[in-house]
Amino acid sequence: MAAPPFAGFGGLVHAAPRGATLPDVAWEDLARRLDGTLIRPEDDGYGEWGHPQNLRYDARRPAGVVVCHTGRDVRTAILWAQRTGTHLVARSGGHSYGGYSATRGLLVDLGQLNAVRPDRETGTVTVGAGARNSGIYTALQPHGRAVSAGRCPTVGISGLTLGGGFGFSSRELGLTADALERTTVVTAAGNALVCDEKQHADLFWACRGGGGGNFGVNTAFTFRTTPVDRVAVYQLDWAWQDVPAAFAAVQALVLRAPNALSCRIGGGSAGRTRAEIAANRKVSAIGQFFGTEDDLRDLLAPVLSAARPERVLIQGRTFWQAKDFLYHSVPSDRYAVTSAYLDQPLPGQGVGTFMDAIDAWPGSSNPDGAGIALFAWGGAIGEVGPRETAFVHRTARFLLAAETTWAREDDAARVAENLRWLRELSRALDAYGNGQAYQNFIDPGLRDWRRAYYGANYPRLAEVKRRYDPKNFFHFAQSITG
After folding, report:
1. Residue 83: how many CB atoms within 10 A of its CB?
2. What is the DSSP pairing of strand 88-91 with strand 64-67?
3. Which residues 6+ apart lie within 8 Å of 239 measured at CB?
4. pLDDT (tens digit, 9 = 90+) per residue, 111-141?
5. What pTM was computed for the model?
6. Maximum distance among all Cα pairs of the chain, rounded to whole angstroms
7. Distance CA 204, CA 418 (A)
């Protein structure tokens, strides 16, 4: 009979309290049991693997990183962490806005589980938990099929899907989570559960919008894909004084537009001084249309006449060329983001609040600056009921995000001013929202986050948590509890 997991640790390790320094023998035993690699702070590769993407949380460094090569590594890490009382966090792309894919305990990195396997017969694609948007697009392009995925090329598929997942194809194709047909979840008990509409259907429901890091570690996803061909894209840039007219015209268009049209309109600035911030103010609208360039031009005509842009780009492209055109990474260095869903357009008073806030922004050394973005919601997203999946935000018309960024060279006072600025702007704009917020733009400062992220679905999510993680092994500051 094989020895039980981690036999030989004895009472020394089993009794180690959470957060205590573990003896080397414990880490050595974990390393021996892995197909992948264990990286500790003293190892050469730690500088690469130990940092979070958002350097705001760079002080939260792991005591060890398991670089998983197989799904078995995930199970090994989970059982070891439970035995030793070590906090465990899984990381796919590492883009948690709240720093929740960082820990001072054991970090399970899924980035090497990045295989993408399209199936010609079924029209599905199965991807590893560490696959990024760019890798999935690359693998699907030869097949002329796509999944509605995010805009950032480096975002991991796990966090994207588990929190819902939207991009410039979502009004036409639905959320990333809406295309999910099956996923494998390793639970706190070490069981690898295949979840779909028939097997562990409650956990499958929760994995479509219930947020990452709550119920287990997902190691694979199978998605339904959709044929794609040619689309049209656009970008409209306005002078700062035309912000009110531009926001009004674009939002009016979105309310009557077909599902085929997507849109993001946003504005902001960058710089350290008042003069730099004033000189760098900008506003633009960008999006995609599943149709021809001529039809897109007709759709945009009312916007072009109501708010004359300084620059107009309207072009027909392949879906893949459009994807490259629309790519935009999350902020670099250090940043904070808040969000709110709107059932109605942001009114002129709210747009004025945003413009005044940009003029009052304290500035920073980060070239990404600060601003807001308003994303068109609805379309196919709203064709799924709020209770059909864990993703509750189905009836909103817009998603509003506000962000500020800073850099290492900015002192503590400037950082505090940036965070205070963001919180004050968010509170002012919340007056126009419906009380909900996007769980993938997770905000550590959001107080009523259970209602904001999950609404009426939270009690059911808590039931799933009790069933699959009764001891709350998977936890963080805003995790679901049973």
Report:
1. 18
2. unpaired
3. 310
4. 999 999 999 999 999 999 999 999 999 999 9
5. 0.94
6. 78
7. 39
